[in-house]
Amino acid sequence: MARFARETFKTAATLLILVLATIAALVIWDSYVTAPWTRDGSVRVQVASIAPQVSGQITEVQVVDNQFVHQGDVLYVIDPFDFQVALDTDKAQLRQKATDLQVKRMQAERRQHLNDLATTPEEQQQYVGNAAQAQAALDAAQAQVAQADINLKRTQVRSPVNGYVTNLLMRVGDYAHEGTTNISVIDADSYWIDGYFEETKMAHVCVGDRAEAALMGYRDPIVGQVQTVTRGISVSNAAPSTQGLPSVDPVYTWVRLAQRVPVRIRITDVPAGVPLISGMTATVTIRGAEAPESDGGLRQRVASLAERLGNIVHGPQPSPDCVPRIGDGNGATVTLSTPKPDAPLNPIEINPGLAPGMNKSPRAQ
Predict the structure, then answer these.
(1) For the whole model, what pTM was predicted?
(2) How confident is the model at residue 29 (pLDDT cuts 50, 70, 90)?
(3) Cα separation, 365 vs 358, whole angstroms
(4) d(CA 281, CA 44)
(5) What pLDDT score was predicted for residue 117?
(6) Which of 43, 239, 286, 364 has the greatest count of CB atoms below 10 A from its CB?
(7) Residue 112 has what pLDDT?
(8) Is 224 exposed, middle or buried (0-12, 13-18, 19+ CB in 10 A)?
């Protein structure tokens, strides 16, 4: 009897060890193959590439490399002399056009009160037309003054964002070319994290899920939320080859490498002492939409383990509203509206009443 008990105990122990080993193997497989985590993560940021809107020699540089600047702060100054001269010249021409308009308006008004012995409808129309031309010249001069004034203000190049000046190579005396980037500012309000998840793990990634990103060299993770999932990555087989034929890479049928899909994570909390530097690598883990702060109770752990084991055997079951669908339900094609040119205006519509009553006698007016 004792011998039978020992044999039974050995068999039970062996079966128990085998079951535990199988469960451990499945859990390890789940953790490394299907669990939503990746070591391929990085900190990203938007960079404002600033180019001057006018050309000229740089006379002042008011920032240094890696300096924090606020939106609207002056970064550098372009020599304003030529632009000040242009503004003063346009203002002088504006005064000239204004004086000419006043004179021609008085001449036209005077002709309107003369009788038919002193003027004719044709002469009235001519003087009214001269006044209208003077008004158009004045409007053009005002536009030129406004342009010259904004060009003068553009000699002070300002930061469009709150952030950090980076890789500053500018020196006083450099020539700034219009439209050519010469200074960059990192937008401090635009940091996010990109996690590149294998496609075998995408069934566990949902928009709105809580995410944690542990930077290399720092213990406390950055907390965030899954914001979007990239809807397309490059496909090498889609590139045309010689003679426009498709280029298809050979593959091994028994080995398939999973593609990596970028997932954008919005940062919600950064631990004290952890700097955000674009390009830093991170280990990103998806915790779920209702992930608790603690590890939870025993029952919750067992339920989670059972669900994970079921996913290994039967495959993960994605949530229907996990990632928003692409396009509308009807598959309708969306087209952009094409702007139509305005119909040309009739000269009478541009200057109505140029010479009112030109067919009437001046005495009758």
Answers:
(1) 0.74
(2) low
(3) 10
(4) 10
(5) 73
(6) 286
(7) 81
(8) buried
